[in-house]
Amino acid sequence: MKISIGCDHAGLELKNELAVYLKSQGYEVEDCGTFTKESIDYPDFAHAVAKSVATKKSDFGVLVCWSGVGMAIAANKVRGVRAVNCYNVEMAELSRRHNNANVIAFGQKFIATSYAKDMLERFLTTSFEGGRHERRVDKLEID
Length: 143
Fold this sequence. Notes:
With about 140 residues, the protein is of the alpha/beta class. It contains 6 helices and 5 strands. Helix 2 (about 40-55) crosses helix 3 (about 70-75).
């Protein structure tokens, strides 16, 4: 399974730690950057990850910024992406099971690395239930 990961300057440490963790778990990781603490514009990196997921180059995406909010908003602008900003394991699971989320965003300021790993693992190993949820997910994209 291939995971695209990206961050802005305020999420660099957590992004790097999650990339190492994902590789240690056997995932293929595409690191879309950023790679320094130099101030950058988060939408550029959110869009890179989101486009990788939307085009099926990657199976899932992981985004990190200070709060996780901006990255999730930016990623959700890409058709085919359902990004969620998670703060607990149950939320990560439900976002997959009920919403078929394909990108998870974290706020480095608010999430300890060990807890982010727990959420990420649950996110990546939970399947979409389909059924009644599929009809609702299909209504998320409008023209």
